Every structure is written in C-alpha cells, then in structure tokens.
Amino acid sequence: MSELMSKHLVIIGNGQMAELFCSQFTHSNDYRVAGFAVDRDLIKTNTLLGLPVVPLDEVESRFPPDSVHAFVAIGPAKNNAIRAEKFDELRARGYRFASYISPQAAISPDAKIGDNVVVGTFSVVMAWSTVGDNVLLGSSSIVGHHCHLNPHCYLALRVTLAGSVIVGQRAFIGVGASIRDNVNIGADSVVGAGATILSDVEPNAVYVTERAKKLPIAADRVRL
Fold first, then answer.
1. Whole-structure pTM over 0.90, yes or no?
2. Which of 17, 94, 122, 123 has a CA that sits 20 to 30 A from residue 28's CA?
3. What is the pairing mode between strands 51-55 and 47-48?
4. 162 with 180: CB under 8 angstroms?
5. Which fold, 99-202?
6. Class of 4-92 per CATH?
C-alpha cells in the first residue's frame, strides 16, 4: 500500500457537501475516509454513508491530529464564515488538511495551491496564480494568470476569472459568473450567478444580474 493510501481522513460536515467529498476522496485513492465530525447540535444520526459521525468537541479523541488529516466540507453559508471558522479551529488543534484536486483539472506548475483546497473537474489554474487556504473552485472554472484567491472564498461552477483578478477573503462568486482582468472582488462580497463584472466589487456588497423573465407566449409558438 502506498504512503498516500495509508492516510486517513476525517471530513468536517454531515450534509450534501460532506457526502460529495466522501465520494470524491474514496474514489481518488489518496485518502481513506475514517468518519465525519460536526457540531454536536447538528448531529442527526450517528452514522453517515456507513461511517461514524462524532461531535466536533470529541474529534481529537476519536480522530487524533497526529494520525488523521482533516477536510472541511461545508458550503458557503453565512458568507463562508462557518467554513472559515471550522478551518481555523481545526488548524489551531494541530490538524493537517487534505485537498481535493480533480485528476481532470489542469494546474500550472507555477501556480500555488493552499490547504483544504478544492479544484473541480475540468477546472484550470494558470501560471503565477495563488489559490489560498480553504478555497473551493467549482468544476469547469478558469483562474487566469496572476490571479490571487484569498483564503475561504468560494467559486461555484463555471466561474471565469481573467488575468490578475484578486478575490477577497470569504467572497462568493456564483455559477457562470465572469470577471474581467485586473478586477478586485472585495472581501465578504457576493457575485450572483451569471453576472459579468467589469470593475471592482466593493467589500461586503452584493452584485447580481437580472433574472430571466417569462415571455407572454407559449413555447410551442416559438420559432427555434
């Protein structure tokens, strides 16, 4: 058994994100998932996918940091504040972190990747870009050259960043958003699905595009 195969992993979370990354890590052959940990008041059952779910305040006794890596699998709730809090808490307890990099992702050898990072399927990280700790980069996303993704930000599916974009801590960028070059996305900001951003985004602000609207015509009358 290889050294990587001998690594055990505890996943922080018990929702759909936790289930998703349990599958990803299980089939990647890099880690063997040992169980899940979550705040005591969020435990609904004692097992998930056949593995134990333990209270986070007991994680060190059940999954010691000297023998188990950790992975924070929590979505962008409360502007990524919960993800950031749990990452910082686990790091303070001495845990090392796993990252999930899809085998179908393309990452430049000159890019820098932090801890507890996700780079999804068919995503690209170009040269001289930095992906900070606890960043999630969704599938089919592109991070152009010389970009800097600060810790705890969350980029959903098919996000495109042109060159030299800076994404602030805990920022959220929604599905299909496009950011032009040399733009700063402020910390704690939200960019909605499908938005096109051509200038700087203020910190703790929300930028969205108009939603699709229903037209007063039946679909069978439309000429395609």
1. yes
2. 94
3. antiparallel
4. yes
5. UDP N-Acetylglucosamine Acyltransferase; domain 1 (2.160.10)
6. alpha beta
